[in-house]
Design brief:
Shape: globular
Number of domains: 2
Radius of gyration: 22 Å
Order of helices and strands: HHHHHHHHHHHHHHHHH
């Protein structure tokens, strides 16, 4: 049975590699844009941007594989079931591989739907289709990495996740520069660079997960295809997927409604969303530490360890949230000035900066509860709580947007996060009692 001694050091050992790993994500996007920007044409930049967005949206639909795998693996580890730990990785890899092949097989209608939702000029769409037709060969790898990363997190091997992220982004950036600037391959070079990074990432991730392949547990097919276990995995993953779709739908509603408030306000909102992104990347590590530690404690049926995992992960998340709040308050105007030179947009952004100062503390409880419930695989409660919060969000928007304009839009988003926390808090006592 795995250790259930939850300490500050253990929380930070899990969380900090994820925080550092997340910090590398925006760098890759900036390099992709910067490299094609050296071609001196607008179309390649737009093509890489829109192509990456469409593919990311398709792959994101299978993001449940990361979260679901983490919770189930952490519980199996906590319960001292190494056979099930290995079987969970195999099930995740099978789902990832099949899902990737499905996207590849259905790429024509999927790409058509993507461009229907995000129309572009003929030149941009043509280049984007070229980019996507290359990158789609990496779909099985990309989706399988969700399962592999989830397994590593469930095993508390977040340093390995950091190594994997650094490797993939490093390979991608190096090949971007070589293929595009050195060999002149243009958009195709960016796509091939990403494709190679994805498949090399799978190979490295399999090596990092080598513990799962020791002995013959990973090929005990009766265990892997156990109907009850498959059904449980399907329920967990489908609940997370529905919850994620509702969350994304709520966020997209925010973006679409903001677009109707004028170009300057829309631009200001886009800048404010960069603060949201920074907050999410910084605090994600602590939610993930809760996933792993709560899952392990629940698997071990150790209620005191579960409570300590919740408290210590939340404590360090609060420390970082306070630091972010202070940072945004002191340096927010400077960050806005860096992100835009347009004076009207700067002025408009400063009007809403105080929302971003408050956001880390307001959003923290909902993110932490997400991590806690994912670790416990109480996904039915997550789905119900998100549905309730989404309905409340829609009603709040209907009232506040006409009354307060863009301030009403931001207040609605903050209240949405508060509702997410409150609805999950209602279900928390039953989650903790399950550890007895």
């Amino acid at each position: 049975m795995a250790s259930v001694d939850v300490t500050h050091k253990r929380v930070l050992t899990i969380a900090l590699p994820i925080v550092l790993s997340n910090a590398t994500v925006p760098i890759l996007g900036a390099v992709d844009t910067g490299v094609v920007g050296q071609l001196g044409l607008a179309a390649p930049i737009g093509a890489v941007g829109i192509g990456a967005v469409i593919l990311s949206a398709l792959y994101w639909l299978f993001g449940f594989l990361r979260m679901g795998t983490t919770g189930l693996v952490a519980q199996a580890r906590g319960a001292g079931k190494p056979g099930e730990v290995s079987a969970l990785l195999m099930r995740g890899l099978m789902i990832g591989g099949l899902a990737g092949l499905g996207i590849w097989a259905l790429q024509i209608p999927l790409f058509w739907a993507g461009f229907w939702l995000s129309p572009a000029s003929a030149e941009v769409e043509g280049l984007a289709r070229t980019y996507m037709s290359i990158r789609v060969w990496g779909a099985p790898a990309t989706i399988s990495i969700y399962a592999l990363s989830g397994w590593l997190i469930g095993m508390e091997k977040t340093k390995s996740v950091f190594i994997l992220q650094i490797w993939m982004n490093g390979v991608n950036i190096a090949l971007d520069v070589w293929f595009v600037l050195g060999l002149g391959y243009g958009v195709e070079g960016v796509a091939v660079a990403t494709l190679i990074a994805e498949w090399s990432g799978v190979l490295l991730a399999l090596y990092l997960c080598r513990q799962a392949f020791q002995g013959d547990k990973w090929r005990q097919w009766a265990r892997i295809f156990d109907r009850a276990k498959l059904r449980r995995m399907a329920v967990v993953n489908s609940d997370i997927m529905i919850r994620s779709i509702l969350l994304m739908g709520s966020f997209m509603t925010f973006l679409f409604l903001g677009a109707g408030l004028g170009d300057v306000t829309l631009a200001a909102n886009q800048i404010m969303l960069q603060f949201v992104e920074i907050t999410a990347y910084a605090l994600d590590g602590f939610a993930i530490s809760a996933e792993s530690l709560v899952g392990g404690a629940l698997g071990a049926r150790n209620r005191p360890a579960l409570r300590r995992a919740v408290l210590l992960s939340s404590y360090w998340a609060l420390v970082f949230a306070v630091l972010l709040t202070v940072f945004f308050a002191l340096f927010g105007p400077w960050l806005i000035a860096v992100m835009t030179t347009a004076e009207p947009v700067r002025a408009e952004s400063l009007r809403y900066l105080w929302w971003m100062v408050a956001f880390p503390l307001i959003g923290l409880p909902s993110w932490m509860f997400d991590g806690i419930f994912i670790g416990a695989t109480r996904t039915r409660e997550m789905r119900l709580a998100m549905l309730q919060s989404t309905i409340a969000y829609a009603l709040i928007l209907a009232v506040l947007l006409p009354l307060m304009g863009n301030h009403g839009l931001w207040l609605s988003l903050m209240l949405f996060d508060i509702m997410r926390a409150l609805t999950l808090w209602r279900y928390y006592p039953a989650l903790e009692a399950a550890a007895d």
